[in-house]
């Protein structure tokens, strides 16, 4: 099995940034989901609420070495904006039910994002202390932590599972007399690591994964939300893949695709690395 894609999302719900190599840290991949948008009540704002976030391209030196700041923001019709590491006092923020602390990026970044996304209550914050956050009890160990992902530091998905899901979607459409759908890309699931070379859904049975020389512990399966139904290009929603996942991958009212990982050490990984799982 090989690592065939490597993806980072410096801004939570921002455009996927494919890369060829990165550093793995205890909190996850370098700069992955370290920036987040919040509303006037300091609660998370994601692409679930503001679909246009998928079109905001956020880069850091980890995703583009030419970036001469902590963060560079790009959006159609707007000039690029460089954002430095915030030195502001931390404020309380909410990530779902979690109460965390983060540093505001400042008025210039807020104004840029409000203009780009057409919403006047947005603010950008940066995770200055990822170790403040503990992970879900029962699926984590003392010391596990992350920045601003939904649940766990890293996610891994399988192209073999994606091919099986697309086959299931085609079968379902034909059963219902619908037009055969175009295969969905693996990017719908916004995984950090994409692998190929195992049978479909072999990841359900894994307890540990080693990418190159970096070991990861399995956290839990990834429960999918409405974001998987959002086309990242057109920003339109549809029934798939949730409809088909609900038929084949539904457990206790949730649908699952891909699995969460927790890094067991730091190190470098690259596209093409061997992946071993047990």
TrEMBL record:
Residues 128-278 form the MOSC domain. It comes from the Bacteria. InterPro entries: MoCF_Sase_C (IPR005302), MOCOS_middle (IPR005303), Pyrv_Knase-like_insert_dom_sf (IPR011037). This is MOSC domain-containing protein. It comes from Nocardioides cavernae. The lineage of its organism: Bacteria, Bacillati, Actinomycetota, Actinomycetes, Propionibacteriales.
């Amino acid at each position: 099995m090989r690592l065939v894609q490597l993806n980072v999302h410096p801004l939570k719900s921002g455009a996927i940034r494919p890369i060829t190599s990165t550093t793995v840290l205890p909190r996850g991949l370098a700069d992955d989901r370290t920036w987040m948008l919040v509303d006037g009540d300091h609660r998370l704002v994601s692409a679930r609420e503001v679909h246009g976030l998928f079109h905001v391209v956020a880069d850091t030196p980890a995703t583009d070495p030419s970036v001469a700041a902590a963060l560079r923001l790009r959006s159609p019709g707007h000039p690029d904006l460089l954002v430095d590491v915030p030195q502001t006092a931390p404020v309380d923020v909410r990530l779902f039910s979690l109460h965390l602390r983060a540093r505001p990026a400042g008025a210039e970044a807020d104004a840029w994002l409000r203009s780009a996304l057409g919403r006047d209550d947005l603010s950008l914050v940066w995770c200055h202390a990822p170790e403040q956050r503990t992970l879900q009890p029962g699926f984590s160990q003392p010391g596990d932590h992350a920045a601003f992902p939904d649940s766990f530091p890293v996610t891994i998905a399988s192209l073999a599972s994606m091919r099986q899901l697309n086959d299931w979607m085609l079968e379902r459409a034909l059963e219902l007399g619908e037009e055969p759908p175009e295969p969905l890309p693996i990017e719908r699931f916004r995984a950090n690591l994409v692998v190929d070379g195992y049978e479909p859904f072999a990841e359900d049975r894994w307890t540990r994964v080693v990418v190159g020389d970096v070991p990861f512990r399995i956290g839990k399966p990834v429960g999918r939300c409405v974001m998987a139904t959002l086309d990242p290009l057109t920003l339109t929603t549809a029934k798939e893949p949730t409809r088909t996942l609900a038929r084949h991958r539904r457990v206790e009212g949730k649908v699952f695709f891909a699995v969460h990982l927790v890094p067991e050490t730091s190190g470098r990984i690259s596209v093409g690395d061997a992946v071993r799982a047990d």
